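pasting for the record
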Amino acid sequence: MIPVIFTGLISAVLVCGFRAFFLYSHRIIPLSFELNMWYLLLRQTLLPVIVLYAVFFLVSKDTITYKVEALFPLLLSFYLLYLPYTILSGSEKIITTFPLFIKPVVFTVMIFSLGLGAKHIEKTIRAKKYVFTSIWILICIVSIAAPSILETMYLMDMNYLLILVLSGVYSATLPVLFILSRLGVLTVRDKE
């Protein structure tokens, strides 16, 4: 897994360097929930996750199981540099508690959920349990969309208490998913 971690770190350095030298980080935030959500979804979650993992998946000569298990360390090492860069480069004013504390937690939950989801999607496909596969795909879609929705709520200056509660509920789903997966609910039990 060490080469995967270095791949994520090097990718983050390249992406952050490209953004710093060639893209303007400060944007005028439109007063549209949908536009902001789609912008953040594409820019901070979908493109990095899909492009980084797709390139890794296509270039790596390892087994499918290894590639699936590598999703978590790859994304974790990538977001280790990319997330602080986006937080610090995108702010023109004093940074509040949401970008400093809540956003990193929400993205960490997303990464753990995607790693867990990818593992169980592979297991349920191999066992031909397609209903469970579709449930895990839905869980992964929700975990990718939640950080963008929560940040959009913050940018639109919605009720901060609501944002905190929703962030807490989203973060609390990770231990629940982990416990359910350990109990064999919504998945296939490992052969011992």
